[in-house]
Structures are given as structure tokens and as C-alpha cells.
Amino acid sequence: MSKQGAITRVRLLIDGCFVDSTSEQWRDVVNPATQEILARVPFATEAELNAAVASAREAFKSWRKTPIGARARIFLKYQQLIREHLKELAAILTAEQGKTLADAEGDVLRGLEVVEHAAGIGNLQLGELANNVAAGVDTYTLLQPLGVCAGITPFNFPAMIPLWMFPMAITTGNTFVLKPSEQDPMVSMRLAELALEAGVPPGVLNVIHGGAEVVDLLCDHPDIKAISFVGSTRVGTHVYQRASQAGKRVQCMMGAKNHAVVLPDAHQEQTLANLAGAAFGAAGQRCMAVSVAILVGEARAWLPELVEKAKTLKVGAGSEPGTDVGPLISCAALDRVGGLIERGVREGARLELDGRNPAVAGYAQGNFVGPTIFSGVTADMSIYREEIFGPVLCVMRAETLDEAIAIVNANPHGNGTALFTRSGAAARHFQEEIDVGQVGINVPIPVPVPIFSFTGSRASKLGDLGPYGKQIVQFYTQTKTVTQRWFDEGEVGGPVNTTITLK
């Protein structure tokens, strides 16, 4: 960061140095609870992006040959530094993104899990060997890094998702160019500073900022071999198509409409608490939020208790103790969510709990929407078809589990789903028949730990391989197959000991 007057200017990271951008286009980074301008972030110029990629390309020449143990030790140090600075990172994140301090710490810690996983790269980046596949012939594979890779990350998890990307890319031997969200880039920059402190060499990690123009430059740049993206379906589809046409590997984690199916035999108190937390936590601004609850059979009678549970949640600034629901990221997001709530009313859904315009003492300018619940929602309504990305829960009804499964499977998205029940038979049937990538059984947000991979599906994902876990090692490496045969020196009549000079 640098200072110009009273406003912090966010810098770029190029070739191991934090540099001031020469861009004429800048954006304010705003505290969503107060509208205070925290910093100004540049939209990097094409020359600056090219310099970052050139630095990464040059660094790759030596980094790819760095011993795998040396790479792992850097990330062992990095995870230690993140733990030591956890409170600081969470405070930065809360100020610029708005989520509660507890959520902000969770954001960092979930990313930290991937850093810890990356530190075990020696056990992950292993090839295969088949001995004597023919007479005297062996075949084996090498998992070799691709080169320069890039990551485009969203505003809602400004620590976790960058940490999904560059640690695994770098430990597998690649170099990286990160483009954080221009809405909240400050915690990503602090993580980059800690990465350099941990020993990441110059050029191995670079950070640039910008909007659509910078995204297109990343997609088109001939020296970038792979792009990882997390964000909206609209932008993700554009990135996938454009970068794929440019010959790159691409993975895009995109929009969602996650359903929780509640059977009447579920534990009522725990289920309602889980639904409230999954629907309204992080102000609903997460791709794995539960945005639809399907109450099956007699569970339909639980709606009043669900509304009462939601009413107990405290709306306020993320930095205030006891806050459950913080502000939305921007005034534009506030207007969009409010507009969708209004459309839901016009289209005939019943507004059981209206969270618009909550009174938040001391934060009159904040982008606040409280927990909002609709009942009587049908599949043709806008509030069901669109990803609201706010603290809004749509409640639907079904007579049977199979009817609920049919509703979920008819939705185009496939990020996550959950079933609440005490029946093992129902759970097994659900997990077998549901067409969604990530399934929770009495777990509302079934994001897997990093030894597995994030496995969203259908319209929620483009690309075959997901972030972190075993799949990301495949994504960031090229499999090279070697078939070799060595002749016995006696058989070919040559000397047993020969000195070979490589020139």
C-alpha cells in the first residue's frame, strides 16, 4: 500500500516489488457498513499486466526446477505467518468486505487449510510406474508444471479463494498472476506480502488489479497457460469461452441455487439453526449458501419456527460484537437484492419476513438487508430462477422426498444441496438420485476439506477439474509419459563403463 493524501493507494506486485500503477483509472474501496473510502485500487494498464506476465514467465525457468521439498518448506512457513496474522487479516477483510469478524476469520482459515495441503505437495505430485510392460521396457509418468497460470477471484471470499489458487499452482512448480476483486483487494495484497516474507521468489507470484479489460487481457495473453476463475455465471461463461478459444486450460466455479430438503423426521431445532446460518450467514453472499428450503410433508408446519429463528439474528456492522448478518458488499448489490425482493412480492410469493431497511444504530449508511423469507415460491418466479446473493430464503413445499429430488434436479445449477433427516435409507436414496456435485447429509454447506476437491456441477461449473485437492494437481500439471528401454551392455557388445559428456 502507498499513501497519497489521506487515501491509501493499492499497489501492484510485479517481479517481487510492490509498485504504484500509472493507470488513469481507479476505483474506491469502500467499507460497506459505513461508506468510508478505505483505499483506491488501480485498473492496471496493459503494459503493467504484460510486465507481470513477463516476470512470471522468466521466474518459471528456475522455479520449475526448484526441488519439491524447497517449495513445500516455503508454504510451511507461509501457513505459520497466516496463523500469526489471523486477527489482522480478518480485520482488513471485515472492513472492506463487511462480513463479521468470525466469518472473516473463517474465510482465512478455510484458505489456510489449502495452504497446509499445498505444503504436502511431495505426496501429491506423484507419477506412476509400470515395470516391464514389454521385454525390458518400463513406462512411467511425470507431472510437470504448465508455466504461467492466472487466477480471477470474487469479492465474497477475498482471502479463501486466492488461497485456493496460488498456493497449489506455485507448489506444483508454476508461477502465478492473481487478479483479486477490485471491490476488496486489500486482504489479498496482505496475503501476497506474507507470501513474499515466507520466501516466494520474485516473479513467482504477481498481483494485478482491474475490471473486464484486465480479465480479457488475461484470457488472451499467449504466455498464460491456465486460468482459474470463481465468480458469477455471466463472467465465468465469458472467461471459459474466451480463454478456451485461446488454447488455455480453464476452470470456472460459477453461480448456484442451493436447496436444502427437510424431512419431517429431522431434528427440528438443529435443522432450523442450520438453515438460518446457511441462508443468512455472510449476508447470503456465498455460492454455497442455502437459498431454497424444500419442506417435505409434515415439515411444512415448521415454517413459523423458521421465521422466528431468523428474527433472532442481529443485523449490523461486521466489526460489532454479536453481529450475525453484516452488510452487502455495495450500494449496487443492495439495490439489486431489494429489487428482487420486490419482484418476488409482485410475482405472488408470500413475504413471511421482510428484511429490507433494517434499523442499524450508528450505521445509517450501511448496505444492510436483514433475513428475508418467502413462502409459496414456485419454479417460474424470479426469486427462484435468479441467484439473489443476499440474505433471502425461498421456501417451497413437496409431498415426498422424490418430489423434492425432482425439484432440485430440474434446477440448472448443481453446486450444493443438503438433506436433513434421521433416516439412513432416505439419505442413501437422496445421495444416489440427486444430480448435484456436493451433497450434505445434515450438513447445510457441504464444502469438502482440501484432501478432496470442490465438485460443483452442471451450470455451476465449467471445466472438468475442480479447485484444490487431487483434481487441482491434475489441473496445474501436464502429464508426460516416458517409455524407456535400456540394453544390457554385454548384449550390444559395448563397454560396461562409458563416460558420456553432455554439451
From TrEMBL:
Q: Does the keyword DNA damage apply?
A: no
Q: Which Gene3D superfamilies does the UniProt record give?
A: Aldehyde Dehydrogenase, Chain A, domain 1 (3.40.605.10), Aldehyde Dehydrogenase, Chain A, domain 2 (3.40.309.10)
- Which GO biological process categories is it annotated with? L-valine catabolic process; thymine catabolic process
The answer to whether keyword Electron transport applies is: no
Give the signal peptide as a residue range, or say none if absent.
Answer: none
| Domain Aldehyde dehydrogenase as annotated: residue spans | 18-482
Family membership: Belongs to the aldehyde dehydrogenase family.
Stored NCBIfam families = MMSDH (TIGR01722)
EC number of the protein: 1.2.1.27
GO molecular function terms listed in the Swiss-Prot or TrEMBL record: methylmalonate-semialdehyde dehydrogenase (acylating, NAD) activity
UniProt KW keywords: NAD, Oxidoreductase
**Name of the protein:** methylmalonate-semialdehyde dehydrogenase (CoA acylating)
Concerning CDD domains, the annotation shows: ALDH_F6_MMSDH (cd07085)
Instruction: Name the InterPro entries on file.
Output: Ald_DH/histidinol_DH, Ald_DH_C, Ald_DH_CS_CYS, Ald_DH_N, Aldehyde_DH_dom, MeMal-semiAld_DH
Q: Which residues form a coiled coil?
A: none
